[in-house]
């Protein structure tokens, strides 16, 4: 919205700064961070009063988690509220990719909110039935995939860009939409599975979002794409403002989610943020790079898939408990140790993902 202040500029004054995506991204970051600090305490107090017993704790989980009983959930409302407010304030409203990412974020956030509400109100871990969650997620992803394709350049429509390999595009044709569904729904659920320890999910999400924001800014500029030999996707640069807002909102949330957490993100936040990462990857044509940048989420999801399939086949377990962060808890690792080491892994993977821009 503040972009329109450029109409007051004569080309050499303060208002001219609002033309620059980087300036507005900085503004979005600070706005979201301030939002988190201002509204965090009152939101947590409201959630604590309304939820009473807080998020239900699994009886079969690590014993240390029983001490977290009574901690309120739905803290994702703070992150989503911060990033939506900051994005609407600082981003251009005529950019279709901004609205695409906001649509996916809010839609998955609503699914997560319904799931959290069901868990808290019934005081069990069942929540919304899995098949219904999946069906809603697929519907949202279909809309997002068609939306993105409609605004991609014709040469990129329904095509998969290969990282590292220069000018390599694979025409997926009718398989583009199913592939995009896998990216968006897979990212949403992978982040959801990762959100099992205080602070574990939010920092990798912020790292991945920051990385994808840099990629979005690069592929949205002709000069950068020519230098880096990557595909130009007009308009995606504006996504940097969304990711900056997510980073700021994430820091604001982490202030209250750091061990011991005063509030849990809940499915409200994890599904919303995971869906956002998937949508950004589809919009920027960097779906495969997301698998690198978000490699931690991939491993978490694979650990669950492997555990379930192997147990059904043999009656035995590969991991002491899945997702894999619980495996390390069962092995005796302290929660902060797991969280910080997983953060380090996420940062390394993000740097590898960024390197794919230059390695051709």
UniProtKB/TrEMBL annotation:
<keyword id="KW-1133">Transmembrane helix</keyword>
<comment type="pathway">
    <text>Cell wall biogenesis; peptidoglycan biosynthesis.</text>
</comment>
<feature type="transmembrane region" description="Helical">
    <location>
        <begin position="65"/>
        <end position="91"/>
    </location>
</feature>
<keyword id="KW-0131">Cell cycle</keyword>
<feature type="transmembrane region" description="Helical">
    <location>
        <begin position="97"/>
        <end position="114"/>
    </location>
</feature>
<feature type="transmembrane region" description="Helical">
    <location>
        <begin position="338"/>
        <end position="357"/>
    </location>
</feature>
<comment type="similarity">
    <text>Belongs to the glycosyltransferase 4 family. MraY subfamily.</text>
</comment>
<feature type="transmembrane region" description="Helical">
    <location>
        <begin position="20"/>
        <end position="44"/>
    </location>
</feature>
<keyword id="KW-0460">Magnesium</keyword>
<dbReference type="GO" id="GO:0008360">
    <property type="term" value="P:regulation of cell shape"/>
</dbReference>
<dbReference type="Pfam" id="PF00953">
    <property type="entry name" value="Glycos_transf_4"/>
</dbReference>
<dbReference type="GO" id="GO:0051992">
    <property type="term" value="F:UDP-N-acetylmuramoyl-L-alanyl-D-glutamyl-meso-2,6-diaminopimelyl-D-alanyl-D-alanine:undecaprenyl-phosphate transferase activity"/>
</dbReference>
<keyword id="KW-1003">Cell membrane</keyword>
<dbReference type="GO" id="GO:0009252">
    <property type="term" value="P:peptidoglycan biosynthetic process"/>
</dbReference>
<dbReference type="InterPro" id="IPR018480">
    <property type="entry name" value="PNAcMuramoyl-5peptid_Trfase_CS"/>
</dbReference>
<feature type="transmembrane region" description="Helical">
    <location>
        <begin position="134"/>
        <end position="153"/>
    </location>
</feature>
<keyword id="KW-0812">Transmembrane</keyword>
<keyword id="KW-0479">Metal-binding</keyword>
<protein>
    <recommendedName>
        <fullName>Phospho-N-acetylmuramoyl-pentapeptide-transferase</fullName>
        <ecNumber>2.7.8.13</ecNumber>
    </recommendedName>
</protein>
<dbReference type="GO" id="GO:0008963">
    <property type="term" value="F:phospho-N-acetylmuramoyl-pentapeptide-transferase activity"/>
</dbReference>
<dbReference type="InterPro" id="IPR000715">
    <property type="entry name" value="Glycosyl_transferase_4"/>
</dbReference>
<dbReference type="InterPro" id="IPR003524">
    <property type="entry name" value="PNAcMuramoyl-5peptid_Trfase"/>
</dbReference>
<feature type="binding site">
    <location>
        <position position="267"/>
    </location>
    <ligand>
        <name>Mg(2+)</name>
    </ligand>
</feature>
<keyword id="KW-0472">Membrane</keyword>
<feature type="transmembrane region" description="Helical">
    <location>
        <begin position="263"/>
        <end position="282"/>
    </location>
</feature>
<dbReference type="GO" id="GO:0071555">
    <property type="term" value="P:cell wall organization"/>
</dbReference>
<feature type="transmembrane region" description="Helical">
    <location>
        <begin position="173"/>
        <end position="193"/>
    </location>
</feature>
<keyword id="KW-0132">Cell division</keyword>
<feature type="transmembrane region" description="Helical">
    <location>
        <begin position="239"/>
        <end position="256"/>
    </location>
</feature>
<feature type="transmembrane region" description="Helical">
    <location>
        <begin position="288"/>
        <end position="311"/>
    </location>
</feature>
<keyword id="KW-0573">Peptidoglycan synthesis</keyword>
<dbReference type="Pfam" id="PF10555">
    <property type="entry name" value="MraY_sig1"/>
</dbReference>
<dbReference type="GO" id="GO:0005886">
    <property type="term" value="C:plasma membrane"/>
</dbReference>
<feature type="binding site">
    <location>
        <position position="192"/>
    </location>
    <ligand>
        <name>Mg(2+)</name>
    </ligand>
</feature>
<keyword id="KW-0133">Cell shape</keyword>
<dbReference type="GO" id="GO:0046872">
    <property type="term" value="F:metal ion binding"/>
</dbReference>
<keyword id="KW-0961">Cell wall biogenesis/degradation</keyword>
<dbReference type="GO" id="GO:0051301">
    <property type="term" value="P:cell division"/>
</dbReference>
<feature type="transmembrane region" description="Helical">
    <location>
        <begin position="200"/>
        <end position="219"/>
    </location>
</feature>
<comment type="function">
    <text>Catalyzes the initial step of the lipid cycle reactions in the biosynthesis of the cell wall peptidoglycan: transfers peptidoglycan precursor phospho-MurNAc-pentapeptide from UDP-MurNAc-pentapeptide onto the lipid carrier undecaprenyl phosphate, yielding undecaprenyl-pyrophosphoryl-MurNAc-pentapeptide, known as lipid I.</text>
</comment>
<keyword id="KW-0808">Transferase</keyword>
């Amino acid at each position: 919205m503040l972009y329109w202040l450029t109409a007051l500029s004569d080309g050499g004054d303060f208002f001219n700064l609002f033309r620059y995506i980087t300036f507005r991204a900085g503004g979005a970051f600070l706005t979201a961070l301030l939002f988190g600090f201002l509204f965090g305490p009152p939101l947590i107090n409201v959630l604590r009063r309304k939820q009473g017993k807080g998020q239900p704790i699994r009886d079969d989980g690590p014993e240390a988690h029983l001490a977290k009983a009574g901690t309120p959930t739905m803290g994702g409302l703070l992150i989503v509220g911060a990033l939506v407010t900051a994005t609407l304030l600082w981003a251009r409203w005529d950019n279709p990719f901004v609205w695409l990412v906001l649509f996916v974020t809010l839609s998955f956030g609503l699914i997560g909110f319904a799931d959290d509400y069901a868990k808290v109100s019934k005081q069990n871990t069942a929540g919304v039935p899995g098949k219904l969650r999946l069906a809603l997620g697929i519907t949202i992803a279909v809309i997002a995939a068609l939306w993105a394709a409609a605004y991609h350049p014709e040469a990129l429509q329904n095509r998969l860009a290969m990282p590292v390999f220069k000018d390599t595009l694979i025409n997926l044709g009718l398989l583009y939409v199913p592939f995009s569904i896998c990216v968006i729904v897979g990212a949403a659920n992978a982040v959801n599975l990762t959100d099992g320890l205080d602070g574990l999910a939010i920092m990798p999400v912020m790292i991945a979002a920051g990385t994808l924001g840099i990629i979005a800014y690069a592929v949205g500029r002709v000069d950068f794409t020519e230098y880096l030999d990557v595909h130009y996707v007009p308009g995606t640069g504006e996504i940097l403002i969304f990711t900056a807002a997510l980073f700021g909102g994430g820091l604001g949330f982490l202030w209250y989610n750091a061990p011991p957490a005063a509030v849990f993100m809940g499915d409200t936040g994890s599904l919303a943020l995971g869906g956002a990462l998937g949508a950004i990857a589809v919009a920027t044509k960097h779906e495969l790079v997301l698998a690198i940048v978000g490699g931690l989420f991939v491993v978490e999801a694979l650990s669950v898939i492997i555990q379930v399939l192997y147990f059904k086949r043999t009656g035995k377990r590969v991991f002491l408990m899945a997702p894999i962060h619980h495996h390390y808890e069962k092995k005796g690792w302290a929660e902060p140790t797991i969280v910080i080491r997983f953060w380090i892994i996420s940062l390394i993977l993000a740097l590898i993902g960024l390197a794919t821009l230059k390695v051709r």
